[in-house]
């Protein structure tokens, strides 16, 4: 045990050293101005702008989640040109560096944190009278400087939820950056619009095919794991090989609650996906422990010492994982990958300050439970 802790501590120290070196000598990373918006501010902006455009009303009691989304075209541009804070502040007055995304039932909105103006709305129904109606909307809401560029007709109605797309552009003070408005309609009804800046050298990209492949692979892997664990649990139940229910239930309940707490803190609300993910984590823990748990014959003091050691190891694994993640992002950046500077800005909006110390506690406890329960159990699943 002590030898393992020593080796793990050495690996943790090396991981921290690598992380510090990345901070000191890593590639240039642009730091965006952090938002000081609260949920109340966001709701007020959304309510005001929705009323202007006669969009569906919302209530703070609705199932709402809040996130921050950075513009990857502008982000890659300012990172390449190493914009300083003053340059970013000026650019932010012309185009949104990032938007605050609000998911409300079937609608999705994005708000410019500087102006409070809507930069995107989807899942909406806004009747308009053809091209003239769209022109008037653009000029009255976004500005007179926008000029109509193209009008496209959808050629793939299966994968696209619009039949016509209107594009408007306007210049900025930087020749390399253009302001763009895209409006999508179905039968003279606007179903989506978005306003963004785009750098000529870095076209705005949607979610990559690799991200979709990764998410699909993760879902399939989770499904296979659920199937294997469930089949093995049924076999053990039929053979009456389950030795205890209390401790597996206790630890799986803690894992499920920790997962649910972290998801609700991150998203700012209780969502269906958050509940489902927490339930899956709790079930996997409970079922696996039922299959493999063996009643201990060791003393209470010995078991407590093991748990202290397991919790300590869990926190070390958390530090190692964090450092490896930063190293991976650094290496990926060498090959052109881009990391959003506002990846965790939603925490500033959703999390109360008193909760912040609790978040790493739940992460560490969850890691400790998974790390400690499974190695101590003797019989393999298969």
**Which structural class best describes the helix and strand composition?**
alpha+beta
Number of helices: 11
Rg, Cα atoms, Å: 25 Å
Mean pLDDT: 79
Shape: globular
Estimate what percentage of residues fall within beta strands: 15-25%
Report the strand count. 8
Order of neighbouring strands in the sheet with most strands: 1-2-3-4-8-7-6-5
Largest beta-sheet characterization:
8 strands, antiparallel
Kindly report how far apart the N and C termini lie: 26 Å
**Poorly predicted regions:** 374-382
Describe the structure.
- With 382 residues, this protein is of the alpha+beta class.
- Helices cover 52% and strands 17% of the residues.
- The chain contains 11 helices and 8 strands.
- The protein has an 8-stranded antiparallel sheet.
- The chain is globular, with a radius of gyration of 25 Å.
- The C terminus is likely disordered.
Could you outline the blueprint of secondary structure elements for this entry?
Blueprint: H1 2-25, H2 39-53, E1 64-70, H3 72-80, H4 85-92, E2 98-104, E3 107-111, E4 118-127, H5 130-141, E5 147-153, E6 164-171, E7 177-185, E8 189-199, H6 209-238, H7 246-267, H8 272-292, H9 300-334, H10 345-350, H11 358-373
Antiparallel strand pairs: 1-2, 2-3, 3-4, 4-8, 5-6, 6-7, 7-8
Helix pairs in contact: 1-9, 6-8, 7-8, 7-11, 9-11
What attributes characterize this protein structure?
382 residues; alpha+beta; eight-stranded antiparallel β-sheet; 17% strand
Short description:
This protein has helices at residues 2-25, 39-53, 72-80, 85-92, 130-141, 209-238, 246-267, 272-292, 300-334, 345-350, 358-373; strands at residues 64-70, 98-104, 107-111, 118-127, 147-153, 164-171, 177-185, 189-199. The chain is an alpha+beta fold and 382 residues long. Helix 1 packs parallel to helix 9 (300-334) and helix 7 packs antiparallel against helix 8.
């Amino acid at each position: 045990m002590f030898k393992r802790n020593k080796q793990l501590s050495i690996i943790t120290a090396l991981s921290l050293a690598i992380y510090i070196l990345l901070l000191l000598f890593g590639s240039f990373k642009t730091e965006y101005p952090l938002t000081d918006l609260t949920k109340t501010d966001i709701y007020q902006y959304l309510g005001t702008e929705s009323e202007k455009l006669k969009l569906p009303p919302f209530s703070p009691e609705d199932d709402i989640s809040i996130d921050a989304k950075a513009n990857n075209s502008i982000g890659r541009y300012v990172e390449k040109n190493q914009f300083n804070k003053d340059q970013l502040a000026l650019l932010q007055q012309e185009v949104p560096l990032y938007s605050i995304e609000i998911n409300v039932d079937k609608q999705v909105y994005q708000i410019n944190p500087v102006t409070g103006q809507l930069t995107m709305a989807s899942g909406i129904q806004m009747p308009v009278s053809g091209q003239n109606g769209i022109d008037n909307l653009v000029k009255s809401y976004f500005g007179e400087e926008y000029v109509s560029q193209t009008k496209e007709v959808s050629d793939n109605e299966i994968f696209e939820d619009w039949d016509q797309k209107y594009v408007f552009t306007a210049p900025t003070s930087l020749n390399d950056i253009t302001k763009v408005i895209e409006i999508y309609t179905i039968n003279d009804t606007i179903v989506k619009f978005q306003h963004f800046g785009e750098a000529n050298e870095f076209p705005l990209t949607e979610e990559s095919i690799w991200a979709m492949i990764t998410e699909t692979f993760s879902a399939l892997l989770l499904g296979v794991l659920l199937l294997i664990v469930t089949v093995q649990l049924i076999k053990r139940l039929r053979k009456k090989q389950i030795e205890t229910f209390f401790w597996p239930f206790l630890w799986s309940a803690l894992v499920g609650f920790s997962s649910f707490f972290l998801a609700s803190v991150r998203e700012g609300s209780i969502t269906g996906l958050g509940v489902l993910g927490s339930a899956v984590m709790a079930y996997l823990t409970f079922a696996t422990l039922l299959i493999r748990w063996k009643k201990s014959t060791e003393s209470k003091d010995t078991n407590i010492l093991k748990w202290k050691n397991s919790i300590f190891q869990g926190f070390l694994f958390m530090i190692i994982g964090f450092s490896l993640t930063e190293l991976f992002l650094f290496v990926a950046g060498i090959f052109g990958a881009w990391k959003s500077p506002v990846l965790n800005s939603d925490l500033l909006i959703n999390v109360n300050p008193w909760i912040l110390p609790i978040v790493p506690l739940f992460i560490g406890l969850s890691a400790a439970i998974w790390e400690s329960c499974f190695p101590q159990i003797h019989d393999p699943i298969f």
